[in-house]
Amino acid sequence: MTTATAELTGDYTIDTSHSRVGFVARHAMVTKVRGAFNEWEGTAHLDGDNPANSSVRVVIQAKSIDTRNGQRDEHLRSNDFLDMDNNPEITFVSTAVEPSGDETFKVSGDLSVRGVTKPVTIEFEYTGTAVDPFGNTRIGLEGSVVINRKDFGVSWNAALEGGGVLVSEKVTLEIEVSAIKNA
Questions:
Q1: Are 20 and 36 in contact (CB under 8 A)?
Q2: Domain boundaries, the chain
Q3: Could you name the domain of life of the organism this protein comes from (predicted)?
Q4: How far apart are CA 107 and CA 119, in angstroms?
């Protein structure tokens, strides 16, 4: 890590009102649908001197999925997709953190969706540090990863008349984090 990030060692709480866990999937093979989860929480321990000692935990409420289309959101909450009634939470728990550049990191961990847990590695970029007007030290991170939804048991689809399917198997998860250092 750089000298600036080495000084950031400590425990953090993700400020979800200034952060985003979103996703992008192709719809009808011609356009992208974007959405996000509105209810979630996360914590992190950062070790600037030894990033391998860092860790992250995020818990997302599946019911909070929001694509700005109520009918689609209800379908995504159903057994066809997230099976929210039986699996109300989506979780990510890190298993390893390693630098991949001066200010980039690979965060590997276990992602659990719909009761299925699979390993994923998310590439994050450290985007900066600031002291907010309330005296809190904030750090910023941005990352993304492409997953195959079928790997998590999310296999519903519909064939299109001209070929192809209604919903892509590949989903890009987009994470933008503002985390506040705990006192």
A1: yes
A2: 3-181
A3: Bacteria
A4: 11
pTM value > 0.85: yes
Q: What are the pLDDT digits (tens) for 28-74?
A: 677 899 999 999 999 999 998 898 999 999 999 999 999 999 999 99
Instruction: Look up residue 64 and give its two tokens.
Output: 């909070």
DSSP character at residue 159: B
* CATH number attached to the domain at 3-181: 2.40.128.110
Q: Tell me the three state secondary structure of residue 94.
A: strand
Q: For residue 55, which amino acid is it?
A: S
Angle at 36 (CA atoms; ends 33, 39), nearest 5 degrees: 160
Residues 93-129: pLDDT tens digits? 999 999 999 889 999 999 999 999 999 999 999 999 9
Residue 50, helix vs strand vs coil: coil
